[in-house]
Specification:
Elements: E1 2-14, E2 17-30, E3 33-38, H1 45-52, E4 60-65, E5 68-69, H2 75-85, E6 86-89, H3 101-111, H4 116-129, H5 145-156, E7 163-167, H6 175-192, E8 195-199, E9 211-216, E10 219-224
Parallel strand pairs: 3-8, 3-9, 6-7, 7-8
Antiparallel strand pairs: 1-2, 1-4, 4-5, 9-10
Length: about 230
């Protein structure tokens, strides 16, 4: 499965005119690969993620998620697509304080209408995959920043998404913990064949990516395999 954006343009109202956030953006991310998106603040990176996540509808262009052209989908269908095919890892984990690590994942399965017993097993499997098998019953305040981000990643994978969208996952972590999170994302992308897009300001890890897309003024100026 892939994520595909073709000639996508997105504008926002800006006084008497409109501000162009995305200007003819094209991007293809095959399953099992990880593409980094880099660029200065305000260049359009967040808008790219929002469009790819079907949270924002572009003015024009085509967005295809797991083989489905999102232009053909109504609001309810897009919501279902997000639950079933798109995993989103936010910059801040935003884990409900009252839920254990396992419950953070189980609630995602519940929202997708999956059986509770199977959800518990899958939650424990994913926590094991991110190195937190022994932290399943811990609440967020009992976890380190790096551990909370790992729960965040596992939560995004709970419903076996075809596409994984990751927004600055290492910005609040030190270099060592940030590198560990990047290693985890690369491993999970390969193992689970997700089409992963990673917005990052940290160029130190770009050699781990399959491709790097550089954004400036809403345009995708370069998208090439890394060496």
């Amino acid at each position: 499965m892939t994520l595909s954006l073709h000639d996508v343009t997105l504008t926002y109202p800006d006084g008497d005119g409109r501000l162009t956030a995305l200007d003819g953006v094209c991007l293809e991310v095959p399953g099992g690969t990880l593409t980094a998106v880099v660029g200065p603040s305000g260049s359009g990176k967040s808008s790219l993620l929002a469009v790819a996540a079907t949270l924002v509808t572009p003015d024009s262009g085509q967005v295809v998620v797991a083989g489905r052209d999102t232009a053909d989908l109504g609001p309810a269908e897009k919501s279902r697509l997000r639950r079933e095919e798109i995993g989103i890892v936010f910059q801040q984990p935003n884990l409900p304080a009252s839920l254990t690590a396992a419950e953070q994942l189980q609630v995602m399965a519940h929202l997708a209408g999956r059986p509770a017993r199977a959800a518990r097993g899958r939650a424990l499997e994913l926590l094991d995959a991110v190195g937190l098998a022994d932290k399943a019953d811990r609440r967020p305040h009992q976890l380190s920043g790096g551990q909370r981000q790992r729960v965040n990643i596992a939560r995004a994978l709970m419903n076996e998404p075809a596409v994984l969208l990751v927004d600055e996952p290492t910005s609040a972590l030190d270099h060592e913990r940030g590198a560990a999170v990047l290693d985890l994302l690369v491993t999970l992308t390969r193992e689970r064949s997700t089409a992963t897009v990673l917005v990052t300001h940290d160029h130190a890890h770009l050699e781990r990516m399959d491709g790097t897309a550089r954004m400036a003024d809403g345009r995708l100026t370069r998208s090439v395999p890394t060496a």
